[in-house]
């Protein structure tokens, strides 16, 4: 008898879930507005970071751009400003914890607390594992892994 009740309960949950999914198919959830949100994008001088910055600029977010490439980040900032966004950009080496902490303090003073963090900075050596030099491995880990831990200074951003 207990098994029968459980099977019926699971069947009802399945039916409800399918009906809910069907309704959401035609009535999508309202999109979050990022207008006025303070968005920090690391690695925003080119590639995915630049495109992400441009998309947030179109949505009138306040942009904080970090990258090691001074010319590239300036170009990204200029393109975002043409779209009407407020942009702050900083040259930051995301492989260096102290650079991240110092830049974070400057951002807090200049702009305020970050509400959306896009940890986009990354390094690819493109070399075979066995021929990769020690300094390349260290740089890869510092930027691709450790930088995400250093960015915890923003607390519960996005939570």
Automatic annotation (TrEMBL):
GO function terms (MF aspect): oxidoreductase activity, acting on the CH-OH group of donors, NAD or NADP as acceptor; steroid dehydrogenase activity
Lineage: superkingdom: Eukaryota
Keywords: Membrane, Transmembrane, Transmembrane helix
Single GO cellular component term: lipid droplet
UniProt keyword Cytoplasm, yes or no: no
Transmembrane parts of this sequence: 6-27
Pfam families linked to this entry: adh_short (PF00106)
Name this polypeptide is given: Uncharacterized protein
Annotated organism of origin: Latimeria chalumnae (Coelacanth)
